[in-house]
Design a protein that fits this description.
By secondary structure, the protein is an all-alpha fold. It is 82% helix and 0% strand.
Length: 61
């Protein structure tokens, strides 16, 4: 059985990692918004990447 303090420590570390990941996703989103491509093939890849980022960001809300 996991001790109470081990569980608390796990939640604290997990929360910190979630916050770090959230910041990374916001940075990636901003970079993609600032560097939107103009050719069709690059736009498909951009749209896929942006969709993945937005989908993961939804999990934080």
């Amino acid at each position: 059985m996991i001790s109470y303090w081990a569980a608390v420590l796990y939640l604290m570390v997990n929360k910190r990692i979630d916050g770090k990941r959230h910041k990374e996703l916001l940075k990636q989103k901003k970079d993609l918004e600032d560097n939107r491509p103009h050719d069709v093939e690059a736009m498909r890849r951009w749209k896929h990447s942006m969709g993945k980022i937005l989908q993961e960001l939804e999990l934080f809300n």
